[in-house]
Amino acid sequence: MRRVLFLSSLALLAEAQKVGDLQQEIHPKVSWKQCTSSTYDTVQGEITIDAEYRWIHVVDDWHSCFERQEWQTDYCNSTQSCTELCAVDGAYYPGYGIVTNGDSLSQQYETPIDFSKSQNSRVFLMEDGGDKYQTFSLLGNELAFDVDLGTVPCGLNGALTFLAMEADGGLARYEGNEAGARNSNSRAFQTSSKICSRIDSYSVCENGACVQDRLPQCDSDGCDYNPYRLGVTDFYGIGGDVDTSKKFTVVTRFAEDKITKFFIQDGKRIDAPSPALPNFPDVNGLSKDYCRIKTVEFSEPDIFEALGGVARQNDILRRPMVMALSIQDDYNAWNLWLDSTYPVNTGNYPGVTRGPCPWQENDPNDLDVQWGWSKAKIAWSNIRFGPIGSTISI
After folding, report:
1. 115-170 pLDDT, tens per residue?
2. Where are the transmembrane segments (predicted)?
3. Per the structure, how many domains does the chain have?
4. Better-scored residue on pLDDT, 174 or 223
5. Distance, CA of 140 to chain centre
6. What is the Cα Rg of the chain in Å?
């Protein structure tokens, strides 16, 4: 709950967010490719870390406004006092385990720093110069990238997502906002009253077939396409059709009627399998029919259709969206929805088994689990974006 309160308070700070000057920030550089049907251009960019992970302290002072998962009420006990007295400071990226080199970005889950350690990170892709987020309109286009997650164990989530945010981080809209995109004013989300403006293009884990597409929903589940949950338990994982012990390529296509994904490994194209459960369509990908049938077979509410369906989804996919890359634990649901049994203690109920990880091994409070996570790292590289069919030649 305290973590949720922290995020809520950041939303209040976003309108007039102050910037500290105790830590100089140098955005790590990273490149990506803008593709056409015949060629590509290399685009120089930068990354900035989410404000959620930054140091928030008293203006012109070293005292923290947020410490031990609690706001320090001596400085921050209302929206006005937090805005006037607290600043979001710059980031030292090696201290977050974040390293870039050319077109690659790596994120360590845990990094020793001083007499403590940092855990988790989420970064946003920016335009060169670092004043605006790089934006992408997904509909009619495809995204490809390489990923190496050989050290990511059960319980951790490495994800590439898209969020609808103002390109300048709300700098122009909110008077007094000093932070903007440069200091990752990520709370300036543009959300819809119907369907949340978020697309989870890819979530990864080591041991389960947790290859999840997610349609934009304002509920905690969304419409996912997880081969393991759909009965194909040997597709994705160590030694699977997609062998997660080695680097591979992910390609996601955002067509008007369907979102599809396939993989490339060792020079071979590997299509996501069709569901192996009865009553599902014998084709892969997220579509209106698939999401409708899934709600029936897994006894889930059809929130996607109720909130506007494919038409509303495509409206969101036409918007400029910001790319986020992350590695994160989950003290709320333990990432069980990703690679384990969720909800737990529900027997063999259809759709409950989402991956092979024993649910106890996802517990972030377990010291043995924490030790197993300490060396986890995810590496992204060779990000490409363009019209459908333009990012790969296989």
Report:
1. 889 999 999 999 998 789 999 999 999 999 999 999 999 999 999 999 888 887 66
2. none
3. 1
4. 223
5. 21
6. 21
CA distances from 393 to 217, 241, 332 (A): 33, 20, 41
Whether the Cβ atoms of residue 86 and residue 22 lie closer than 8 Å to each other: no
In a domain, 209, yes or no: yes
Task: Confirm whether 185 is domain-assigned.
Answer: yes
> Cα(169)–Cα(382) distance, rounded to whole angstroms?
26
Write out the residue range of the structural domain in which residue 219 sits.
28-52+92-387
**Considering the domain boundaries, does residue 109 fall inside one?**
yes
Show Cβ contacts of residue 207 under 8 Å, excluding neighbours closer than 6 positions: 153, 154, 237, 238, 244, 339, 355, 356, 357
Question: What percentage of the chain has pLDDT greater than the value 70?
Answer: 80
Q: Flag whether 85 is in a domain.
A: no
Instruction: Report, as an integer, the average pLDDT of 287-295.
Output: 92
Q: Give the domain CATH number at 132.
A: 2.70.100.10
Among 51-55, 142-146, 375-379, the least confident range: 51-55
Does residue 244 surpass a pLDDT of 70? yes
233-241, long-range: CB within 8 Å, 24+ apart, which pairs? 233/209, 233/356, 235/209, 235/211, 235/272, 235/273, 236/208, 236/209, 236/210, 236/211, 237/206, 237/207, 237/208, 237/209, 237/356, 238/206, 238/207, 240/209, 241/270, 241/273
